[in-house]
Amino acid sequence: MPSLSANLRRKRILELLKARGALKVRELAGELGVSQVTIRADLAALEREGRLVRTRGGALPPEPGRFELPLWESRRVHLREKAAIGRRAAELVKDGETIFVDVGSTTTEFARALSPELKDVLVVTNALNIALLLEAHPGVRVVVTGGTLRRLQHSLVNPFGTRLLEELYADKAFLGANGVHPEAGVTNANVPEAEIKRLMVAHAKAAYVLADRSKLLRVATARFADLADLAGLITDDGADPEAVAALEAAGLEVIRAGTARP
Fold first, then answer.
1. Which of 9, 21, 49, 191 is the one with CA 20 to 30 A from 134?
2. Could you read off the pLDDT of 221-230 as tens digits, one per residue?
């Protein structure tokens, strides 16, 4: 049987993804009669179009409200964009500040980008991987919130996840999100993590959401902030101009990762 053209093959991949909810490269290669290399190229092309999210060995639908990727897999999605967002957000941190740092792949890139020249910065985080990442930073002290461990994200949540945060206040908060929408606000796929995010926003003088273009105009399960609660959204240069315009029209300041620092 002759192999399908690239367009027909990718259409079939999307049909299978809709029907099954998750796909494996090995299985697709067998069903479509092509190599795994070809399937990976197809998945990469469909990911660039926003039609799916690649995972280790397969793919998932792009809807943030339905699926939550493990941290080690979400780091692979839009990695360059997340790194750029993290660098841009890190420029906002000043000596002597107290900052809340939320769990997530983009906030991990933010923590990685913090200047080694910073002095006397207190980081309060519910992300165990971020706490370990910053352990060796000479100008940063780390406070871990405590709580119950979620293995999927290396995060600490309720029960007991908010007790320390109730007693602390920060100059700035840096948070991840699964959706940023003009009407629905800022949302997250996981409800227990949304509770932590909501308190971080409430106890920070300025809260910034770090979200790549795939999160814009999306709505996930649990709202944790209105756009009016935020000092700004930091996103990548590839964000859809219409999505950015809609968020700005709703009153949100949108900061592009590649924009020069004022």
1. 191
2. 889 999 999 9
pLDDT confidence tier of residue 20, bands split at 50, 70 and 90: confident
Residue 90 in tokens: 């890190």
Q: Is residue 1 part of a domain?
A: no
Domain count, the chain: 2
Of 239, 198, 234, the C-alpha closest to 217 is 239
The model scores a pTM over 0.85: no
Q: 79-90 vs 105-113: helix axis angle to the nearest 10?
A: 50
Per-position b or e across 117-141, b if 16+ CB within 10 A of its CB: ebeebbbbbbbbbbbebbeebeebe
Do 230 and 101 share a structural domain?
Answer: yes
Residue 169: pLDDT over 70: yes
Same domain, 25 and 124: no
Q: Are 116 and 163 in the same domain? A: yes
29 and 120 share one domain: no
Phi, psi for residue 180 in degrees, rounded to 5:
-135, 115
61/8 Cα distance (integer angstroms): 18
Q: Which residues, in sequence order, are bridge partners of residue 175?
A: 209
Structural domain harbouring 200: 79-256
Residue pair 199/161 in contact by the 8 Å Cβ criterion: no
